[in-house]
Task: structure prediction
Amino acid sequence: MTFQEQQAAERAQDHIDSARLQDAIAALAAFGGRGDGGVSREALTGVDLAARRHLIERARALGCEVSTDDCANLFFRRAGSADLPPVLTGSHADTQPVGGKLDGAYGVLAGLEVIAALNDAGIRTPRPIEVVAWTNEEGSRFGPGAMGSSAFVDPACLPAYRDAVDGAGVRFGDALDAALAAAPDVPRRPMRQPMSACVELHIEQGPVLERAAVPLGVVTGIQSVRWYRVTCAGMMGHAGTTPMGERSDAMATAVAVAQQLYAFAATGSGAPAGTELRLTLGRWQVTPNSVNTIPGAVEFTIDARCVDEAVLERFEAALGEIAARQGGKVGGKVGFTCFFRRPPTLFPPAMLALVSQACERASAQAWLPAPLRLTSGAFHDAMYLAGHCPTAMIFVPSERGISHNAAEATAPHDLFLGAQALAYTVAALAHR
Ligand code: HGY
Ligand code: MN
Ligand code: MN
Result:
């Protein structure tokens, strides 16, 4: 690291303002804010569009140029002294149906805080810096997840994404067109722009950092993930008149499949010691969903994750066997499709070294333990950017390891240290 790089990195770090960051978090959380302290701001809903407008105004007030692309990703650009590919930071602004104030939002707002700190420090970086708010990272309203970042690196994804529908039958493409039309003042730019590097700051969303009593995490990679839709077909019938032995009950089939999947995850996955197959059957749709009609169809989703992708391969094979076995029973048919899959992501050593340096300085200045290295249990947009440019992630702890829950929280001082580490990393990269 050159003297100039180091000096800029340290000055940027030292100009992060905790109170300003806290105010920004509270202001964004108001868009979709809930009475229980959580946030409901699913991708491209009205509150998400209002939140986007709020971010555009905040970025412009910091002197940024704002642009967007065909997937409505928002880019907030601080000019550099040279016309070089920018350093990218940021995250996503959409949330789970019942989310928290920090998942995604923290990375976007900390990126804007880095720009404010650079402005305060009067630092002009050779490279431009861009803060991004990716579209639909969560994938809860429209599947799959990370649509914006995956379409950014591979625009060929977008046509199929446009046909994804939400629970009310709204097409992603129609919601996307409405979002783009709502920002006529934001110029459109091509997808897949060159980036010199990418750093994403995020809450850990798990218990590791808090249990280790360490305020900062250097993320070495992201575990693999697969999402499936399982459909169980039966025959609707009268709950009172149909003898139990003559039913084709789609729910009985679905429950039997689910029980065998949980059993496989608990004992049959062969996950290496210290790792596990994490299985979530999160969304169920029952037809006709009536208290006194035997379900004619049940669809449920599977979210399967593991650091070792061979485990997911074994899981998929087991799912096929269970579906065939259970589907052969009385009139029950079981089908499944995989609609999202991502292999494990590993971040490059040179990026890990820089992020470690940034985290070490921030935690040392606070007289706190040095950073921990860990794998991310959650997926992030950085998993796609890692295939586009040198990429890294920084974590801060989640209280009680809770996320995707209104109770999601992180101590303000930890959020401050994370933003400091981000500022150091981004400023150094912008001088390379
Ligand atoms: O599901 C995930 O891992 C991310 O938080 N959307
Ligand atoms: Mn997230
Ligand atoms: Mn999330």
Q: What stands out?
A: Residues 224-342 form a domain with the Alpha-Beta Plaits fold (CATH 3.30.70.360).
